[in-house]
Amino acid sequence: MKSVLPFFLLCGCAQQQGAPQAPQGQSRTPKPPVSQTKPGKTPPPVYSAGDHPETLKEDKVDRTYIVHVPKEYDGKHPIPVVMLLHGWTGSAKTVQVHTGMAAEADKDGFVLVAPDGLGKPQGWNCGFLNIGGEGADDVKFLTDVLDEVGKKVKVDPKRIFVAGHSNGAMMSYVLGSKLSARIAAIGVVAGTIGFDQGPQQARVDAPAHPISALIIHGLLDPTVPYDHGEGLLQNCYSAPASAAFWAKADGIVGPPTVKSTAKGNIEERIWRSGRIEVELITIGNGTHDWPGGVNWDGPETKTGLDAAERLWGFFKHHPKA
């Protein structure tokens, strides 16, 4: 398909030879051309396929993000958008590639938006945990990013999703809570809703509107523990408690259905009510890596799970209700 490119109207000023002259006493100034754009009609999107680095001024600070547009985007039909949030020490540039989400966007045709957090190293202010910029309002920044993308991409308003890893997964919970009227579903890899033990007890608020969630967590995660115990964030809500909290907030009553796959290495717990679904995928040999992505040791293959593929598979079946 053709890429969507800016267009320019070129006007010739030379008078054509033999053209009729204006009668004496009348102006020779030509009439302006009649606009071909109907009143209220949205101008065509300006993004072409590929990566588009952008900068947005927030509270006198330049904030950056990358918009990855799939090759098949024609600018004519509404397209899903996935916002992808990196973990602490990560970046917009690396998270697209290391998670495999940019390749998934090209394969299945959605726009991937990867913002940068603040700080050195970069992180996010989740409210219950701030490892980003001091006093940063990341909810406002990420909301503004979605608004800006909507000015240049024909977004499907029922298919706006947010996913993240680690600190970015925590921020995904926050956006799901704060923007539940706008976001259709969230994807959480190695995250938590907050802290339920220790001196800093706090968590995200319950979403005002039901919002589906896919939660992926390794049982051997040493950084954001699957359950209480040893670990860098040992006082955080467990993965099962986080999932149960979200299901209850969605108004889902009753226990989840449970099934095991991959010879028992992967367990899936599913809470469902109509079109709203909360799913917790527990990986027996999973650590803090992004399953199926690329980590410091190279490609992650031991878990047998492709998180990018599973996330998009979940998202495309859970548009805004």
Strand tally is 14
CATH class: Alpha Beta
- Give the oligomeric state of the chains in this entry, treating copies of one chain as homo and distinct chains as hetero: single chain
CATH topology: Rossmann fold
Low-pLDDT stretches: 1-38
Description:
By secondary structure, this protein is of the alpha/beta class. The protein has one domain (50-316): Alpha/Beta hydrolase fold, catalytic domain (Rossmann fold, 3-Layer(aba) Sandwich). 20% of the residues lie in helices and 26% in strands. It has six helices and 14 strands. It has helices at residues 92-98, 101-108, 138-152, 167-178, 239-249, 307-316; strands at residues 50-58, 61-69, 79-85, 111-115, 155-165, 185-189, 194-195, 202-203, 212-218, 257-261, 266-273, 276-283, 294-295, 298-299. The protein has a ten-stranded mixed beta sheet with strand order 1-2-4-3-5-6-9-12-11-10, with helices on both faces. Strands 7-8 form a two-stranded antiparallel sheet. It has a two-stranded antiparallel sheet with strand order 13-14. Strand 1 (50-58) and strand 2 (61-69) form a beta hairpin. The longest helix has 15 residues, at 138-152.
